[in-house]
Amino acid sequence: MAAPKGNQFWKLRSKHGRDKLFGSSNLLWEAATEYFEWCDKNPWLKSEAIKSGDMAGTVMQVPTARPYTLQGLCLFLDCNAAYFRQFKQSLPENEKDFSTVITRIEEVIYNQKFEGATVGAFNANIIARDLGLTDKQEHEVNARIEQVTGMVIK
Question: Which domains does the chain possess?
Answer without folding.
Answer: 5-130 (1.10.132.80)
